[in-house]
């Protein structure tokens, strides 16, 4: 397992208009119980926030064993605007994941993607001008409320 990461009150601008060659993601978190709150992520060529158990090459975050996926997380009260990829991507995460009260607009792909074997609570998110689907579930998840 990896350690906990807490990120609050941070602004990131990927400058996609001038950064035309790199697929820049706002945040890629490979940490247990990661918390991202009250951030503003703008103009990324990739996704806004990714909570995942593997790196870009597909290698597990836990170098000792792929049998220990990333455990849980909370993504709340963030503004994600104009990512070229997904707004929020949850992939390969076990345990409880909360995606609460985020504002996502202008995505190139889906607003929120839940590709995980975990319990996911998605509530109070505002999604608009989404490039493909608002919310995609690719695995067993539990959604309480979708706004």
Automatic annotation (TrEMBL):
It comes from the Bacteria. Transmembrane segments: none annotated. This is Right handed beta helix domain-containing protein. It comes from Hyalangium minutum. The lineage of its organism: Bacteria, Pseudomonadati, Myxococcota, Myxococcia, Myxococcales.
């Amino acid at each position: 397992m990896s350690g906990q990461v807490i990120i609050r009150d941070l602004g990131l601008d990927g400058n996609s208009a001038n950064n035309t060659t790199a697929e820049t993601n706002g945040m890629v978190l490979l940490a247990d119980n990661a918390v991202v709150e009250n951030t503003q992520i703008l103009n990324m060529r990739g996704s806004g926030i990714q909570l995942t158990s593997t790196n870009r090459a597909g290698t597990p975050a836990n170098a000792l064993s792929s049998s220990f996926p990333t455990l849980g997380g909370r993504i709340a009260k963030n503004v994600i605007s104009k990512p070229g990829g997904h707004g929020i991507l949850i992939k390969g995460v076990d345990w409880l994941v909360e995606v609460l009260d985020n504002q996502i607009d202008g995505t190139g792909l889906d607003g929120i993607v839940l590709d995980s074997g975990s319990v996911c609570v998605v509530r109070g998110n505002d999604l608009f001008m989404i490039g493909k689907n608002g919310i995609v579930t690719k695995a067993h998840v539990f959604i309480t409320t979708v706004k």
